[in-house]
Amino acid sequence: MGEVILFSKSLSLTDIRKRLSMPTTILPNLPSFTNGRHAMDLQVEDEGGKIWSMRCIIRKKGRKKPVLSRGWTKFVHKNDLMTGDQVTFLKKQGTLLAHYYKIQVKKPVKVFGTILGYAPSTHAVHTN
């Protein structure tokens, strides 16, 4: 079963406090927003194997920029995410589920305040 990286980004304050803003380039990899729909729930697996339900929303008018809202802030809180942490959002290929996603978290590695790189988060949550 393969995985395709849809995007990676360093988290901003808005990403931490409200919603995860995603690039419009991932729209073809999301379920179709048809019949005037502008919101849907996605099942997203973390690195510990826990499945999180997150609401994906696009604007009703203008540019169709996707964001993760409901469920995202719970994920942020339970995984102690902070601004500057890096998330990678992937689509899992070859699953029975048509739309199955995974999220990876990396924390910055700092020496004397300088970021040298990113390391996988050691914080895996298995509780609700």
Automatic annotation (TrEMBL):
The keyword Nucleus applies. Keywords: DNA-binding, Nucleus, Transcription, Transcription regulation. GO terms for cellular component: nucleus. CDD domains: B3_DNA. Residues 5-104 form the TF-B3 domain. Signal peptide: none annotated. Gene3D superfamilies: DNA-binding pseudobarrel domain (2.40.330.10). One of its GO terms (molecular function) is DNA binding. It comes from the Eukaryota. It is found in: Nucleus. This is TF-B3 domain-containing protein. It comes from Tripterygium wilfordii.
